Give the backbone structure.
Amino acid sequence: MKITSRQTDAHTLVGAYAIDAITTRDRKRFERHLAGCEECAREIAGLREATAMLGAATAQPLPAGLKERVMAVAEVTRQQPPVEEQAARTGTWAALRGTFGIWLRSLGWPGRLTLAAGATAAAAVLAIAVVFGVTNGSMQQQLKQVRASDRQIAVVLTAQDASMMTRAVTGGGTVTIVMSNTRHALVFTAKGLRPLPASRGYELWLTGPAGTRPVGMLPAGSDGVTGPVVASGVSAGDHLALTDEPARGSARPTTPMMLYIAP
Amino acid sequence: MRASGSQEPKRRRRAADGASPRDDLEAQIGLVARGDGAAFDALFERLAPSVFGVVKSVIRDPAQSEEVTQEVMLEVWRTAAKFDPGRGSVTAWVVTMAHRRAVDRVRSVQKEAERERRIATEEVPFDEVTEAVESSLERERVRRCVNSLTDVQRESLILAYYRGYTYSQVASLLGVPIGTVKTRMRDALIRMRDCLGVAE
């Protein structure tokens, strides 16, 4: 077989590629090569069976609760159909997914979500699970509506460092948050939250070194979608909290926090 | 697809004695693609410990490893319908996804340059990694195959796979030319593949 020197050069990356020992730039370069090299694809498939065993050799017991969280989130996460769904994933969303984790940490939010609700509160029905970087069609649709609706929101959504996080609320919907560190702001939307009586509403809070500040009441949702609500003046160490309050709102939370992003 | 025809008997043996026959997992992923929660539960039991293990070996930080493990398992749920048995086993698909995510996470969290600087002085944790492999499960076979590699092959493989280093980082750690590391990585994997009898 005739092999050009360029092919030879790219081909030497087969091993490194199979174990991700290459930079992102090299990976892209190699994937271009791979697209036209059936032999490489075959070789990599074989090598990956071997690397999978290297990985499996490190198997270890899972931390408590991990499985339950994944199962809870899976339950409310739409699956992709077998055909490619590329159109649904624009570059922007892919980028948001990628940068989300870093942003959170830079704000001092390690990304742990705990349910701080008393057993007696109606809110306690909700078990909140964590999802990172998971998007699905309905959330994207939700965010598209958000994008169109408000300029202030658009500022956050289009910020260079905008990143998105999604939390699933078992038995009670999902929340999606888009944040911008440079804008010190975030956009909050929820879908499928448990309906409250007309006299009550969901109130969003920022709580941290600067004290606990009300962000606002979540507007009554149409079609199960609540929000969007913009929180500005977000600073490092702030947590986001959600409580069930009288419909006109409270100055301080009066019921246990249902959603609390805590260190 | 067959990278090497001679591997077939070994594979059959593996399927016979292995705890996770490949066909079984393929059937499960098919059910998962159709939204079967029980199948996902079973698949989770089988694969999540490996995902967590590989992610943690690269990332180290338990909380972050947990996050990435969740991401990966949810990605499996979401994209089960995209699994293509013609391109490898379910295990390889999932573990590859886990490894790549873990590597991407450490490389984005620490700036590459920072990492490069740190590498120059870092103590190489071979023993630790090797021990982790030795002490955990099925692993005897993996350990035997890893031990059959030459020193440079083994060290390149361990640093790259279990630590998430790039080939050029591995080269500077080992004081070996980049070209050598690239070839040794490939040679190491080919030997592992043949030794483990897992060729496609």
Q: What stands out?
A: Chain B touches chain A through 91 residues (CB under 8 Å). Chain B is about 75% helix and 0% strand.
